[in-house]
Design a protein that fits this description.
Number of helices: 3
Helix content: 25-40%
Number of strands: 8
CATH architecture: Roll
CATH topology: Nuclear Transport Factor 2, Chain: A
Structural class: alpha+beta
Low-confidence stretches: 1-34, 159-166
Mean pLDDT: 79
Order of helices and strands: HEEHEEHEEEE
Largest sheet: 8 strands, mixed
Strand content: 35-45%
Oligomer: single chain
Shape: globular
CATH class: Alpha Beta
């Protein structure tokens, strides 16, 4: 590598570090990112977004789940697809209306399949422990193991909380544009809290 090429590479690395303006916050815990992030940082940021969504579903009632998605997003459970924020809100509203439920969505093996400037496709493994009732529930077996295929887009967002220096329209945040959950192992006879057919 020539001295000029080394200087340019070092400067690009420094620019990536110094332009990293990510923040976590807002009702959807959406992430605001600078345009020039390394693939490993994008993987970390997006896995944090997925983890925050599962946290909302496990520790809340899922009522803020649609905030992690674009307004026109698609959410598919097995063979049943829901489109847009209203239908996604309906899924989690119906889940909450069933009554108390204990769940833990354990995500691992987050892997970026494709990365473009404002779009990322990724897959992760999901292990779900869930049962109707209040904790503690007498179960130790996962209800399902699934592959979760997400397509993320970086979109303009509203003011980023705790960042009054970032005006409307300038905050870029990652949201889920499409999510497809494909069951790989499913406990026979168990009832999932979301429609899959």
């Amino acid at each position: 590598m020539t001295p000029d090429a080394r200087t340019a590479a070092a400067q690009a690395t420094d620019d990536t570090r110094t332009t990293d303006t990510r923040t976590v916050g807002g009702p959807a815990h959406a992430l605001s990112l600078s345009p020039a992030l390394s693939p490993s940082l994008i993987q970390t940021e997006l896995s944090m977004l997925v983890t925050a969504l599962w946290f909302e579903i496990d520790h809340g009632d899922g009522s803020a789940a649609s905030g992690f998605f674009t307004a026109d997003a698609e959410l598919t459970f097995s063979r049943r697809t829901f489109r847009g924020a209203d239908e996604i809100n309906g899924v989690y509203g119906a889940r909450a209306a069933r009554g108390p439920r204990v769940s833990r969505h354990l995500m691992s093996n987050f892997h970026v399949l494709r990365h473009e400037t404002d779009s990322v496709e990724a897959v992760s493994a999901l292990v779900l422990y869930a049962q109707d009732g209040t904790p503690p529930v007498p179960t130790t077996v996962p209800v399902l193991v699934a592959d979760v295929f997400d397509r993320f887009v970086r979109a303009d967002g509203p003011d980023v909380p705790d960042r009054p220096d970032v005006p409307d329209g300038e905050a870029r945040r990652w949201l889920i544009a499409s999510r497809r959950i494909e069951n790989r192992f499913l406990l026979p006879g168990d009832v999932l809290a979301v429609p899959t057919e």
